[in-house]
Amino acid sequence: MGVGHSSVSLSLDPISIAAFTAKPKPKTSCFVNTHCRRSVFPTKRVSLFVDFSLKFESLKCGTVAGEMDTEKGIDVANKSILDFHDIDERLIRKMEFDALVWSSLHGLVVGDRNFQRSGQVPGVGMVHAPIALLPMSFPKSHWKQACELAPIFNELIDRISLDGKFLQDSLSRTKKVDAFTSRLLDIHSKMLEMNKKEEIRLGLHRSDYMLDEETKLFLQIELNTISSSFPGLGCLVTELHRTLLNEYGEDLGLDSKKIPSNTAVGQFSEALAKAWTEYNNPRAVVLVVVQTEERNMYDQHWLCTMLKERHNVRTVRKTLAEIDREGQLLPDGTLLVDGQAIAVVYFRAGYAPTDYPSESEWRSRLLMEQSSAIKCPSISYHLAGSKKIQQELAKPNILERFLENKEDIVKLQKCFAGLWSLDDLDIIRKAIDKPELFVMKPQREGGGNNIYGNDVKETLLRLQKEGSEEDAAYILMQRIFPTVSPTILMRDGICHKEHAISELGIYSAYLRNKEKVIMNDQCGYLMRTKIASSNEGGVAAGFAVLDSIYLT
Amino acid sequence: MGVGHSSVSLSLDPISIAAFTAKPKPKTSCFVNTHCRRSVFPTKRVSLFVDFSLKFESLKCGTVAGEMDTEKGIDVANKSILDFHDIDERLIRKMEFDALVWSSLHGLVVGDRNFQRSGQVPGVGMVHAPIALLPMSFPKSHWKQACELAPIFNELIDRISLDGKFLQDSLSRTKKVDAFTSRLLDIHSKMLEMNKKEEIRLGLHRSDYMLDEETKLFLQIELNTISSSFPGLGCLVTELHRTLLNEYGEDLGLDSKKIPSNTAVGQFSEALAKAWTEYNNPRAVVLVVVQTEERNMYDQHWLCTMLKERHNVRTVRKTLAEIDREGQLLPDGTLLVDGQAIAVVYFRAGYAPTDYPSESEWRSRLLMEQSSAIKCPSISYHLAGSKKIQQELAKPNILERFLENKEDIVKLQKCFAGLWSLDDLDIIRKAIDKPELFVMKPQREGGGNNIYGNDVKETLLRLQKEGSEEDAAYILMQRIFPTVSPTILMRDGICHKEHAISELGIYSAYLRNKEKVIMNDQCGYLMRTKIASSNEGGVAAGFAVLDSIYLT
């Protein structure tokens, strides 16, 4: 998804930085005991959260009880092996300089928010992408777990997308209170009425996870089925960190080989190329649906460049409004935009209500959906990635509706955080009693809208009093308390030593043509790291950067 | 040399754009007859210039008489095969977008003059380098000629550098009126007194040429022996133009294979690495002497990155003032900067008077010169590249003092423009009579100081009247009238259709250790193209861009 959409957004504009679902440990309780160049976690733990959340999980979310014991074994490996704040200042200066130079020469750049045309014209107002100077420690076992989940989620989304009734029913209450979801569902209904079949289905997803420090559980934050951002820049950050460790690894006691390779952009371009091939019109192109302003355009350009250079597939970039003006459907279902046949529609816009300022954009979305072009995503894939569906899937016996393999189901359930709808009175009571253990997430996309702490209590009390249907616009999620680590973040050419929390995104690609699954792969990763300092509400006060992982 | 130094400077700041030695044909007389998608040169020619300048050349500069006849054969090949202004607008828009994206992703960038920190910190305030959208047509025969000249000039500079008396004598009058040359000569004198020998000598030169439209002669503008800029970005422009022709060549009727490959940055890094190896101290590094602000830093970073990645040789960047503070000489001659032994000093600063704002910078230069580090360039190489020496070499029988091979001498003389000192009364009279056929060049470096047109006449008359020694600060050069071609230039993300003139720079590297010549190679090229519109004085009113060549 685009900047500002995911839970750890990488917008350069602080105003649009989305809130984490997670609340970082308060700074004061961390790193009280840093010795041996290792960050040491606080030894006193508030056990309440663990018991409380786990009980809910086993009761409501199908999480396998007792997994805490097995997870505990990871405890040691999870510690970062080096406190980056202890690194010699001269060495930091050298690495900082090298990182800035490397980023500039290798296209690890974004549009500068201070430069007016930087979101419209490529090549002007560029600044290095906000980055972590060094990779974040991450347990190998959870990395493996995340990679294994990727093809299962791919398959799950595909199955859900075929169950039109499930999507419509699950979102029926949301539809009444959320205009955006309602419009998406309208398009979906039209397709059901038309009995429109998507024979070639392409998914380019990113599943985002956090590691809960208390429970050592590795929990899914959300699954992005539209506009999964940063496959391009994410790969570059991995490459940058490897380059730095090749040069300075000895001084740091770090081995570049422990950074897993990242092939996100290569595999995404391969998936798009294979989809293009399946469409089987050599003259057709890939349509990239873009926002009118996009400071993260270089991430998209990397993907398109690879698609051209490796697979000789051309792309055209158009906004929803342009597609409304220039698009037409031929009687055989072919989508033409500006006279050009479209094989694949790749959305890097259209995921947020703000992407549809007028009827023009909705017409455009409908036109594309009606066409025979491969949609990445189709309206069904898009809806299957919504928060409400995520919450529905966490209910007992729902996964079984879509998947046969029991082991796969167990694997998925293991990564589900506690998720509840607001018609669960038992949970509402608990959330009013202990609001600090919950996050209220509105259905509508775009980060920054989550509700934390005492606001959870107040919002729930208000909804109870009003007795309106507005509660359907929210879900409740277990609040995750991720590990806080000392990091060095870089933005606007300036280095910041901060304590930060991280979220791991695993990319995956799925392509099938009728019964033939052509691709079902995990495709690299994206670590996002964000300053842990937070205000009372838990909303991010700092900024997020692109990061990679160092397996421990 | 750095931005602003050479005759076609690539500064982004219009104020520092240097004047060409050449005067473009007035726009009105060009392209009156463009048909068959070819630019057609004006058919009426002012024959005066040809006769006049050739007579001078054969009289004064050792240019072989009668070469006009052989040169005339090139006439047809010299025409650009396509009038770029005729290209379909939609195709231009596509290429423009692709060029901007390619530049951003591949590090073809400079610091934006509108962004305050862009010359100090890498990674901030970046903008694509000013570029020509498509390569400039250039005759294959002259390209071959230029390549052949490279090793001869390398050898010549090396021989001159060993003739301390020639340098001192030739520059003795200049010394009296030019403070900068005087300081350089002082250092040179000290080295002569010390009997300092440079056993390992490294030259990274760029010889700049223009093609005179009237005579079809390919004439040297200057030879840069210090700080030859753009080996990095120049290679990228070549790569960009090949990429564009691979994609759009068929539409344009152009073949990407006709753009000669450009290995400047690779060969320069190889030369630096080989010099480092000759110095034979594995712990020593290459010192890059830089200006305090450098918007062209990415060109330098490319060279240093290649040096590290291909040859594992590290660089440190320091200003002259920093070297004064942090530098020291060990008794064995080793240069230490900030405690770090220096194998090679590579100057990307120190070529202009403004680089020495205080005695600190001069102390720094002297310190480095006294050391055993390999200087690129040594003070002798630096002086050997001065305009006065260029003019001296154009005198009859001077080349013979340095070179034995008659064929080499003929080749060099063939590219010498008419060059005269101001003690030649005959020429002074002619220049006062026809000032439009001459350029007055001051000895001091940094572009923008040349005198054109009626100013030549007035300056000469004033100097005659005053009878001072100031005339020694200038040389007179034949004015070159280059071909004006329709081009598409890009700056700040904006495309400009302009008529432009071009200057070809040929890079070359020379490395010897005592009697052993380790490297003597031509190393790629740089085409610079500049808007032809000019004011009465001939000073550039437009801007210059990086370009490549298309052999015809």
Automatic annotation (TrEMBL), chains A, B:
**Residues bound to substrate:** 206, 226-229, 294-296, 300, 348-351, 528, 539-540
Which Gene Ontology terms cover its molecular function?
ATP binding; glutathione binding; glutathione synthase activity; magnesium ion binding
- Family classification: Belongs to the eukaryotic GSH synthase family.
Q: Which reaction does it catalyse?
A: gamma-L-glutamyl-L-cysteine + glycine + ATP = glutathione + ADP + phosphate + H(+)
- Cite the annotated pathway: Sulfur metabolism; glutathione biosynthesis; glutathione from L-cysteine and L-glutamate: step 2/2
Leading EC class: ligase
Name of the featured protein = Glutathione synthetase
Residue ranges annotated as transmembrane are none
Species source reads Herrania umbratica
